Amino acid sequence: MTNKTAISELSKLPTHIAFVPDGNGRWAERRGLPRLHGHRAGAENMQRMVTYLNEYPIKYVTLYGFSTENWSRPQDEVDGLFHLLEEFIITYVPEISKKGIQLRHIGRLNQLPEYLQIAIKNATELTSKNDRMTLNVAFNYGGRGEIVDATRQILTDGIKPEEIDERLFNSYLYTRDSPDVDLLIRTGDETRLSNFLIWQTAYSEYHFTKVLWPDFGKKDIDRALLSYSRRKRRFGGL
Ligand code: IPE
Ligand code: MG
User: Given a cut of 50, is residue 22 above it in pLDDT?
Assistant: First the structure.
């Protein structure tokens, strides 16, 4: 089904969708282009997808942009990804803001280059009052690192062991202002989580597709939403 109206009339849309947008490098390699061209095409697709999801509307979208493990890629690819995010922010955030989208960063901000930290902080401040949709950008993000950071902060705050429960722990995660992930979509023909939102996806539905991220379009997201709407989520019950 590619008819958005028909889908939005379905009773069950996910509140929170998370994306592992994989396959940018292969997309470029198949065209004989440098990998960074694939990342650029991926960033452009990000913008199209966010606009499309905002129309549904989907309330929360989280994108995996750069993992704490991606530092091991060649330096020029790492630098290229950083500059691409800065460019993406400068080009699209005013537009994103007009659409009522709030941009948030999740991950370890202070390890990123200063120019990028400034761009991210400006973008989050500019959009902080928007409430139509929240867009979490995971950049220098790792799920295990997030749990470690939360634990450190809980201890720093002097929380007593008996005060710690799942709700409190959740309130210390980077994603504290977003609900659990309902639907996780990974493109690029890999079926793993890669240290993404490991706490928040405990009961998510997963959708894996062979489509490479720059080619992932409206009909692909509609297919994922339709398949999600047909699933019965029981959360351990019957
Ligand atoms: C995903 O695309 C984007 C990032 C990790 C930033 P890849 O760069 O992993 O693309 P492939 O897997 O090499 O095709
Ligand atoms: Mg990959």
Answer: yes
